[in-house]
Each structure stands twice: as C-alpha cells, then as structure tokens.
Amino acid sequence: MALTLLETAGAPRTGRRVVVITGAGTGIGRATAVAFAAEGADVVAVGRRPGPLAETAALAAGTDGAISPYPADITADGVPAAVVRHAVETHGRLDVLVNNAAVVGSGSLGSHTKASMAPQLATNLVAPVLLTQEAVPQLERTGGVVVNISTSVGQRGWPGNAVYAATKTGLELLTRSWAVELAPRGVRVVAVAPGAIDTPIADHQGLPPERREALRDWQIDHTPMGRIGRPEEVAWAVTRLAAPAAAFVTGVVLPVDGGAVVG
C-alpha cells in the first residue's frame, strides 16, 4: 500500500518537508504547526474540531509554508491509515510525524473505571502506536522523524492524575524502543516532555476557575524558573529535534519544563 501511494502521488509538489501533527487545533499542537510552516513545511493539522483547525491553518498566512486542516478522531478505526494516506496523496511524501494529541483525566486510584480510563489510553497511547505504525514506511523513504509529546510529570509521582502520567511515561518507553528498532531503517524517534505550559488542557478537564487557579499556582511553585511555559517554547524544541541537523539524535526525551524535573 505504501509503495502504491507514493507512486500514484508522484514527486512532491514543492519539495518541502511534509509534517503531520495530531492535536493541532490548540496549544502545543497549534504552535508546532505554525513553527513548521514558518520553516517552509507543508503541515497536515489533525484534530477532532474543524473550527480550531481552521484557526490554526490561518496562522500560516505570511509564512513560507502552509497548514491544511484534517478533521478526524485519531482513535477511530481506520483513521491512522487515512491520515498517512491523505498526507502522501496530497503532498507526495511524509517527513515528520508529531504525536501530540492527548486527553487528560483526573481521579484517585479508587475512582477509576474501565470506561473512565479508556479515552486517555486510546488517545495518549494506542493512537500513537497505530499512527506511527502506518507512517513508518513513508518515513523510511525520507529519512524521517517521529516526535512524541510526553510530559515531564511522568517522571515523578502525580497523585490524582496517575493514569495520564502513566500513558505519557509509556509513550517515552515507546520512544526509546522505537528509536532502537527503527534506527536501521533510517527513522529517528525522539520525544519532548513539556512541564506546565499555557494551554487550554485544564479547561478541557472541566475544572472550575478556582481549581484551575490553584493548579496554576502549584505548577509555578514547583517550577524553578518561576513561570508557566509558552507553547512556542515547546514548538521550538520539537522543530529542533526534527531538524535535519539533528540527524544523529534519536531516543532522547527532552524536558521543556523550566527545571521542574530537576528542581
């Protein structure tokens, strides 16, 4: 199938790098899409909601690249293959896959059920496996890169959000394992582990304003640099690790957390 897609697509339309980013409607995904577009890449922005994706695409105006929305639920059957097929049929190649989409859910040990954990496991862990699996044959052709977005809190205990942290820690293990497995095929695999970043992720949890404010204060107190990070700072790390100049870097998990892990 991969060979057929490449043959039918022909040569890339622009010769530019092609990047697929999940969870690209807001936050880190949006900032990363804009950063790659600024470098001249063709970005396929994947997410559940068409509206935010359109807003992300509009931010590429004036850059050397372009962002095209691809509304889809990456946990749905057949979607990982469809995403890769769309990128290759539209742009002729695939150079970078950024597994960024994530679902956060809170709850102590006694509160978890199979149903409550399912969205986090499906989005944060299973979907990246299936999407990377589909992307690898195309990345092998371009000497491409997989960038997984984990979290710095996965390296510490996080009572009340342990399932989320566990999925991200699992993604880091996959990063290291895939790096070894795919190195002979010319595919690099790296990860970026953000700390407290100014994104809407807490809003998506449905926390009341006072809880969100308390959480933000706690995050700042536990960040040695004394502030919340910006999505653009994470995007910088993603683009640098995915850059051709980083060709000898694989298997690394880079914290972007203001010193939270070492503090």
The low-confidence runs, each spanning 5 or more residues with pLDDT under 50, are: 1-13
Mean pLDDT: 89
- What is the chain-wise order of helices and strands? HEHEHEHEHEHEHHHE
Termini separation comes to: 48 Å
Q: Helical region count?
A: 9
Annotation, overall tally of beta strands: 7
Pairing-aware structural class of the strands and helices? alpha/beta
What is the rounded Rg? 18 Å
Q: Largest sheet at a glance?
A: 7 strands, parallel
Helix coverage percent: 40-55%
What's the arrangement of strands in the largest beta sheet? 3-2-1-4-5-6-7
| Beta-strand proportion | 5-15%
Shape: globular
Task: Write a concise keyword list for the protein shown above.
263 residues; alpha/beta; seven-stranded parallel sheet; 7 strands; 46% helix; globular; disordered N terminus
